[in-house]
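We modelled the chain as a single entity of 354 amino acids. Its sequence is:
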Amino acid sequence: MTSNNEVAYYLIFDTNVLFQAYEKKADFTSFSFNATYKNIIDMINQLDIYNQVVLGIPLVVWSEMEKQIIEKHDELLLTYKKTITKKIFPEYSIQENPTINYSEYIKIKILKYKEELSEGLNEVIEIPIASNSRFKSIINRAFSKLPPFEGKDKKSDKGFKDALLWESVLEFALKHPKSKIIYYSKDNAFGNFLLKEFTESVADSLLFICKNEDEVKTQLEMWAKEIDKYSYQPIEDFDENKEIVEWLNSEDFITQIMSRGFGLVENGRLISSTTAHLIDIDNIECMTSNEDSKEYYIEGVLQVIYELRDGGKTSETINVGIEVTILDDSIYFIECAYRIDDEDDEGDEDESEV
């Protein structure tokens, strides 16, 4: 930890950065964060600032991720049971284990995962839920529709979890003066308004809201220079997924995803044309690989722009899961694409231009 005169560095995660997308690959026998967490750890360790940068996981995030895995387990277990009762193969024998209380089962797995994190090289702390003294502020946000209580066109009360998380970060900063904090969140609710509020509320600390790994990387490198400018070495840019990233940013990707639709975009008589582009890539995971082909699961953020027949324009931002097959290292084919995390993203559409 730091002395009273030293700056303390914290990196705090939102749920939408760490959550697992269970639609494609699901292991309900264990609990862990997604690949993004390891990527951030690798950045910190490569910059040799693991003794200075403390990782913060809010209790709100732990609770939300526990709820997420339980709900997905219950949902996909029913689907799995229906599948195995309709298909029988002589090569496979499936036996049903005794029924368990999955909520209690996964609680134990989460505690084990927390222990594993605490035993690692990097210091990981739990950010407490905002105390009762902050709830007056949450209520004021709700009634005044202040960020993150906005929702679509500021007509929704969506945002309680985000507000609770934000108040927890504010309270943490107030209790940890002379801090520099990265808050890593992909939520559009966290923007300039909340940065301004933080500056006005917490006089002697700084907050940086990052929405993707590149922004986190940039900020961590700046911290590394501050901590020791003489030994600072930038993070080496090695990307084993360089070729697939280039394809994801190509015209071929957009052509495939738009021409086949996959139910991602809206259709209607008021829409004259639709365009889209990928604005962020959250996760790339190779599922299978052999000499002739590779199968990938990709999570990203797609922005869709609708041109309206009356001359107006509107857009929406969609979290998508994409299944891609690569043949002979050169032919890319989208097998499937679908919306993920719809519930959390409801109301994040951009405002229309008319």
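As a brief sanity check on the tokenised model: Strands lie at 8-13, 53-58, 124-127, 179-184, 206-210, 271-289, 293-308, 313-327, 331-339. Residues 151-157, 342-354 have pLDDT under 50 and may be disordered.
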